[in-house]
Design brief:
This protein has 354 residues and is of the alpha/beta class. The chain has two domains: 3-318, Alpha-Beta Barrel (TIM Barrel), CATH 3.20.20.100; 322-354, no CATH class. The chain is built from twelve helices and twelve strands. The strands form three sheets. The chain has an eight-stranded parallel β-barrel with strand order 3-4-5-6-7-8-9-12, surrounded by six helices. The protein has a two-stranded antiparallel sheet with strand order 1-2. Strands 10-11 form a two-stranded antiparallel ribbon. Strand 5, helix 3 and strand 6 form a beta-alpha-beta unit. It starts with a strand and ends in an 18-residue tail after the last helix.
Length: 354
């Protein structure tokens, strides 16, 4: 296991993040406490220190398990959890991004986690209702109180994130150092705005559903008898089922072909493709069984060569749309640079998405 800086900070996190939404069987499909402990211990033994959860996951059981597991090694763990969501009820302030929910949620998480501080506190999903000033000032208060060390944002538009960090920079408040998005060979639309923004602002990207809810494990490739639908168990806010269309099937088949060619599993190939993307991209790996975790962590043992990367890039490529396609037009480039583009060196070229 190697380590990366968590965005524009000095905090070092492992190149894989352990997602613990599977810790607890409250939702009918997770891991028992004993199996969860085995997964947790194996991740730490491999050098992992970055572990992610949320207050909503398995009705709070995930945080409770984490609190018990960290009893003897809290200091070495980079503990991440989230706030915003709650089960449907009758309290309009029980969910959302507002200060009241943030303050109540962090106190409840600290109790369940049996700790007095959270290393990385995520806003789980943008609610489009709370003023960004309220959110960023409330986060800054938590940091000044010592209850939170770093902050991040998940599942939000690029314009919200950039506006929030600019506001925080101007006012001397704590800025986001991490961005959490859905990202995989199946789901690459974050490459249009979110990932370029993350590289420009030096935000570490943690990728949820890196195996596209099992689509990239090979179980649903051509010839499989698994059917045309797959349970979306990697994220509780997603619809329970997703169709496997022609594009997804083609990508899955390509991943299987590359895996067979290099003697690896499809899941390992899909995770390694993510790890080789520009900027700091950290896959969040989740497992219900210890064997799944060990298979996923084996993605650290190799890199994909240029031919295999190109094959996967091509089969999964998306249309970037306007304004990206407009900027790439030769005539536009000629006018924008006065015909001198090919004579101007660009030191940021290695950050461009292939």
């Amino acid at each position: 296991m190697r380590y990366k800086h968590l965005g524009n900070s000095g905090l070092k996190v492992s190149e894989l993040c352990l997602g613990t939404m599977t810790f607890g069987d409250d939702w009918g499909w997770g891991s028992t406490k004993d199996e969860s402990r085995k997964i947790y211990d194996a991740f730490l033994e491999a050098g992992g220190n970055f572990i992610d959860t949320a207050d909503l996951y398995t009705n709070g059981t995930s945080e409770l398990f984490r609190g018990d597991f960290m009893a003897t090694d809290r200091d070495r763990i980079v503990l991440a959890t989230k706030y915003t969501n709650t089960a449907p009820g009758t309290d309009p302030n029980a969910a959302g991004n507002q200060r009241k929910n943030m303050m109540q949620s962090v106190e409840a998480s600290l109790k369940r986690l049996k700790t007095d501080y959270i290393d990385l506190y995520w806003l789980h999903v943008w609610d489009f209702l709370t003023p960004v000033e309220e959110v960023m000032r409330a986060f800054d208060d938590l940091v000044r109180q010592g209850k939170v060390l770093y902050i991040g944002i998940s599942d939000a538009p690029a314009w919200v994130v950039s506006r929030a960090n600019t506001l925080a920079e101007l006012r001397g408040w704590t800025q986001f150092v991490g961005l959490q998005v859905e990202y995989s060979l199946i789901e690459r639309t974050c490459e249009r705005e979110l990932l370029p923004m993350a590289r420009e602002l030096d935000l570490a990207v943690t990728a949820w559903s890196p195996l596209a809810s099992g689509l990239l494990t090979g179980k649903y490739a051509e010839g499989s008898n698994a059917g045309k639908e797959v349970n979306r168990l990697e994220h509780p806010m997603m619809a329970p089922l997703v169709d496997i269309n022609e594009r997804k099937r083609a990508i899955s088949n390509a991943v299987v072909e590359v895996a067979e060619a290099i003697g690896k599993t499809p899941a390992q190939v899909a995770l390694t493709w993510l790890r080789q993307q520009p900027g700091v991209v950290i896959p969040i790996i989740g497992a219900r069984r210890l064997s799944q975790l060990k298979d996923n962590m084996a993605c650290l043992e190799f890199r994909l060569d240029e031919a295999h990367l190109q094959k996967l890039n091509e089969i999964s490529r998306i249309e970037l749309g306007f304004p990206h396609d407009f900027f790439a037009n030769e005539m536009v480039q000629n006018f924008a640079f006065g015909g001198m583009r090919n004579l101007i060196d660009n030191h940021r070229a290695e950050l461009k998405v292939k």
